[in-house]
């Protein structure tokens, strides 16, 4: 019995080698019904199939696995795929049907296509003389073990591929959600920054306008005060000149009264009065001319300042409009 048990795995290994040679020589064509398994992904790791030593232990393992998780397949321990989680419900249903068909030994469309593409090769049968005599119980268990291992491996591959696909889809959805959240945050920050900059520019423009208005009011007050000062000064000068003329006239009258030659005194007085009037008129004209030039210069300076302030205001408004357009875009 010990020799029978020891030599049974050699037969299984020979059968697996022949099957692997067939699969390598004739690769099946992959269609929508028979998609390729993602065996090259780093998450795919084949698990070793634990072969039960006897039928009693296999039943115990199957009952314990089904009691632990009701979604698991019997004798395998692999969880059944959840159809609602995946986006492609049609593919998941097809895969479930194919897995159940493989488990029960029913050939599916994909397996039929793959079998058609494969070239049939006869397995090398071992000679009966070289094999040790096998009992009926040991041969039945040894024949059922490789079929059961193939079914379990196929189910494991299918479930692992579906789990890998679900994980990949979940990771892609999480990445898309993170990217969308990041884009939303950047849009909100840009909108807040643009609104704050626009508000600051508006406040700055209002402050500049207030400053311009204050300066204009000050200038107007200064001009009015200066005009009043000039008018008062002219009036004082006129009064001083009038007084001086009156004093001079009184002196001339006294000189006329005192002088013997009245005509000479009158002539001298007339000349003096004419000279005084000419001087007064020339002085008044010069003063008026100077004041006019001064006022013209002040008005020019004010006009230039107003022009500069208007240009600065236009520049600020253009900048505000550009910022508003950029924020809208």
Automatic annotation (TrEMBL):
<protein>
    <submittedName>
        <fullName>Uncharacterized protein</fullName>
    </submittedName>
</protein>
<keyword id="KW-0175">Coiled coil</keyword>
<feature type="compositionally biased region" description="Acidic residues">
    <location>
        <begin position="12"/>
        <end position="32"/>
    </location>
</feature>
<feature type="coiled-coil region">
    <location>
        <begin position="281"/>
        <end position="315"/>
    </location>
</feature>
<feature type="compositionally biased region" description="Basic residues">
    <location>
        <begin position="112"/>
        <end position="123"/>
    </location>
</feature>
<feature type="compositionally biased region" description="Polar residues">
    <location>
        <begin position="136"/>
        <end position="145"/>
    </location>
</feature>
<feature type="region of interest" description="Disordered">
    <location>
        <begin position="1"/>
        <end position="169"/>
    </location>
</feature>
<feature type="compositionally biased region" description="Polar residues">
    <location>
        <begin position="59"/>
        <end position="74"/>
    </location>
</feature>
């Amino acid at each position: 019995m010990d020799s029978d048990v020891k030599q049974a795995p050699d037969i299984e290994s020979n059968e697996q080698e022949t099957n692997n040679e067939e699969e390598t020589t004739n690769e099946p064509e992959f269609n929508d019904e028979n998609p390729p398994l993602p065996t090259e992904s780093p998450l795919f790791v084949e698990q070793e199939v634990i072969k039960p030593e006897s039928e009693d232990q296999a039943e115990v393992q199957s009952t314990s696995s089904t009691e632990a998780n009701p979604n698991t397949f019997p004798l395998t321990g692999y969880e059944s795929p959840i159809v609602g989680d995946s986006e492609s419900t049609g593919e998941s249903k097809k895969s479930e049907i194919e897995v159940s068909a493989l488990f029960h030994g029913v050939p599916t469309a994909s397996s039929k296509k793959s079998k058609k593409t494969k070239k049939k090769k006869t397995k090398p049968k071992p000679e009966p003389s070289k094999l040790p005599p096998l009992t009926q119980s040991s041969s039945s268990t040894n024949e059922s073990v490789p079929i059961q291992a193939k079914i379990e491996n196929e189910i494991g591959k299918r479930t692992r591929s579906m789990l890998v696909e679900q994980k990949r889809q979940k990771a892609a959805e999480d990445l898309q959600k993170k990217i969308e959240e990041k884009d939303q945050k950047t849009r909100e920050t840009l909108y807040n920054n643009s609104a704050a900059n626009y508000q600051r520019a508006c406040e700055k423009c209002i402050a500049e306008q207030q400053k311009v208005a204050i300066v204009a009011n000050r200038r107007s007050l200064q001009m009015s005060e200066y005009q009043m000062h000039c008018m008062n000064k002219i009036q004082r000068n006129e009064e001083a000149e009038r007084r001086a003329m009156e004093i001079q006239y009184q002196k001339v009258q006294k000189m006329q009264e005192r002088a013997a030659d009245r005509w000479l005194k009158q002539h001298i007085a007339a000349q003096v009065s004419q000279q005084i009037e000419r001087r007064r008129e020339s002085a008044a004209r010069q003063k008026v001319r100077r004041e006019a030039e001064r006022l013209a210069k002040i008005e020019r300076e004010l006009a230039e300042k107003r022009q500069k302030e208007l240009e600065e205001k236009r520049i600020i408004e253009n900048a505000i409009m550009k910022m508003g357009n950029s924020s809208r875009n």
